[in-house]
Known about the structure:
- The complex is a heterodimer.
- By secondary structure, chain A is an alpha+beta fold.
- Chain A has 4 helices and 10 strands.
- Chain A has a 6-stranded mixed β-sheet. A 4-stranded antiparallel β-sheet of chain A has the order 4-5-8-9, covered by helices on one side.
- Chain B contains 8 helices and 6 strands, in the order H-H-H-H-H-H-H-H-E-E-E-E-E-E.
- The model of chain B is unreliable at 1-11 and 144-210 (pLDDT under 50).
Amino acid sequence: MSISKWKIYDYVDENGKNEIESWCRSLQKSDLGRLNRKLQMLEENGPNLGPKLLAGPIKGYPHLRKLCVRGNVQLRPLLCKGPIDNEQEFTLLKGAFEVGYEYSPAGALADADIRRQEVIRNAPTRRCPHVKVVK
Amino acid sequence: MLRQEGVLTSKSSSELRTELMEIRDDKEYRHGYADESTTVSVATQLKVLREQRNLTQSQLALEAGMRQSMISRYENVSYSSWSINTLRKLAVAFDVWLDVRFRSFGELVAATDEFSQEALEVPRFDDDPFFKDAAGMVAMKKNSRPFEMVTAVDPRFRNAISVEKKDRMPEALAPKAGQPRFTIPQGIKGEGGILNATLGNFTGEIASIY
Lengths: 135, 210
């Protein structure tokens, strides 16, 4: 039995809206199933057991990582270690896709980086424990 | 972990079970989840087996007759375009058996719960306890000196058990750490298939169950 050592958080905007949960709800069911399996692995086994579970660091954004999920569309949720406790946490910052080697939406990386700073400034209100969406 | 009795005993298993129960009505979701589980499992186990054997990707590639870049690709939890034939070659390189089966979603709960480096490790043939034990038994029987044998019956499994004197047991037959412990009536206590036994004045280890 694996014992969970990692906690996953979702970014919350200034109005208290869980942006990650909203993004997850927009996904097709099979893609959501794939995403949830990978997130579960990250939570239960951490980033090191599954080879290349997390890709990164991303050029120009040293703190960002992406979770690669290949389904009907290429899911690339952007996340960072911590940023409060780098040994036990990941925070999902931005839901994104990859289309033709480009991120969609286009400013996803910059957005994620800004959100990380927001979480660092005010973690209690700008993130919450990951809400698992199951359709 | 899914226990023998078919009861999910740990909190984690219970949570996983609840999680999967939630999606039982959605075929599309559960197949996406299961498909990703397979992809993740193959890539992770390839890396675990390679590291268990202290092989570099290049060394494994040489063993399997592939390029190192392909090994690197297969060891990626997002890559799923391997073929059965490729996995067969890797099984030969690792000296293990490739099992390809269709399985129920209920089994996915146990498989997900057991997902860990330890659970994914598989001994190569030369280190396989089954064959080591079997080889030990053959060697023991060939080694002339007569050994004491007692036959007992485990009422739970209704199997006959032969018991041999401990001092004549080859090391390969010693109880293995971490194997499930259970108690058999008539004073026999043991671990896994190789059991410590006390029958009257006799103390030894179960050599075989047949």
